[in-house]
């Protein structure tokens, strides 16, 4: 199949997006009503996720140019891709929630890409179940802060014991 200049531009653009993406999710979209599609696109936009319908052949070529392997087997039937350049979890979360809302009808998750690695639909679901980035950072900081708090308490206890001992010595000398 000869590639026209327009298709070459589409492949170059998609390859660039796949290279820059932190997280992407491929879905089927057939059977979505206009209202459902509009609602999905609005939710994705709010999460700063780009969503577009892609041609499987052009996506295969773009993935090869972006050095992403293992995507070919997921590129069958209708395909749309949700891409986030900042949060690898955002597309998975929004799409998983929307699939639950639709009860699995008319929208199906095919696969995902995280930091250039392809994951299957179960991997996308696992990714979607992770806490948000802010929660993970708070948990990390709490874990890092815990030993320091313990050290401060131990040092404070030693100082308190020293003050109590000095106070006891003072009282002993006063009474003597």
Automatic annotation (TrEMBL):
<dbReference type="Pfam" id="PF00466">
    <property type="entry name" value="Ribosomal_L10"/>
</dbReference>
<protein>
    <recommendedName>
        <fullName>Large ribosomal subunit protein uL10</fullName>
    </recommendedName>
</protein>
<dbReference type="GO" id="GO:0006412">
    <property type="term" value="P:translation"/>
</dbReference>
<dbReference type="InterPro" id="IPR047865">
    <property type="entry name" value="Ribosomal_uL10_bac_type"/>
</dbReference>
<keyword id="KW-0689">Ribosomal protein</keyword>
<dbReference type="GO" id="GO:0070180">
    <property type="term" value="F:large ribosomal subunit rRNA binding"/>
</dbReference>
<dbReference type="InterPro" id="IPR022973">
    <property type="entry name" value="Ribosomal_uL10_bac"/>
</dbReference>
<comment type="subunit">
    <text>Part of the ribosomal stalk of the 50S ribosomal subunit. The N-terminus interacts with L11 and the large rRNA to form the base of the stalk. The C-terminus forms an elongated spine to which L12 dimers bind in a sequential fashion forming a multimeric L10(L12)X complex.</text>
</comment>
<comment type="function">
    <text>Forms part of the ribosomal stalk, playing a central role in the interaction of the ribosome with GTP-bound translation factors.</text>
</comment>
<dbReference type="GO" id="GO:1990904">
    <property type="term" value="C:ribonucleoprotein complex"/>
</dbReference>
<keyword id="KW-0694">RNA-binding</keyword>
<dbReference type="InterPro" id="IPR001790">
    <property type="entry name" value="Ribosomal_uL10"/>
</dbReference>
<keyword id="KW-0699">rRNA-binding</keyword>
<keyword id="KW-0687">Ribonucleoprotein</keyword>
<dbReference type="InterPro" id="IPR043141">
    <property type="entry name" value="Ribosomal_uL10-like_sf"/>
</dbReference>
<dbReference type="GO" id="GO:0005840">
    <property type="term" value="C:ribosome"/>
</dbReference>
<comment type="similarity">
    <text>Belongs to the universal ribosomal protein uL10 family.</text>
</comment>
């Amino acid at each position: 199949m000869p590639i026209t200049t327009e298709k070459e531009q589409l492949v170059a653009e998609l390859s660039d997006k796949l290279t820059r993406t932190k997280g992407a999710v491929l879905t089927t979209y057939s059977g979505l009503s206009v209202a459902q599609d509009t609602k999905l696109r609005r939710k994705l936009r709010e999460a700063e996720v780009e969503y577009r319908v892609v041609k499987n052949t052009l996506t295969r070529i773009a993935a090869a140019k972006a050095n992403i392997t293992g995507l070919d087997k997921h590129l069958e039937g209708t395909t749309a891709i949700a891409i986030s350049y900042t949060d690898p979890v955002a597309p998975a979360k929004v799409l998983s929630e929307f699939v639950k809302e639709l009860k699995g009808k008319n929208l199906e998750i095919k696969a995902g890409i995280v930091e250039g690695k392809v994951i299957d639909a179960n991997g996308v679901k696992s990714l979607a179940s992770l806490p948000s980035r802010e929660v993970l950072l708070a948990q990390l900081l709490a874990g890092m802060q815990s030993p320091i708090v313990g050290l401060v308490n131990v040092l404070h206890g030693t100082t308190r014991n020293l003050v109590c001992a000095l106070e006891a010595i003072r009282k002993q000398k006063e009474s003597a």
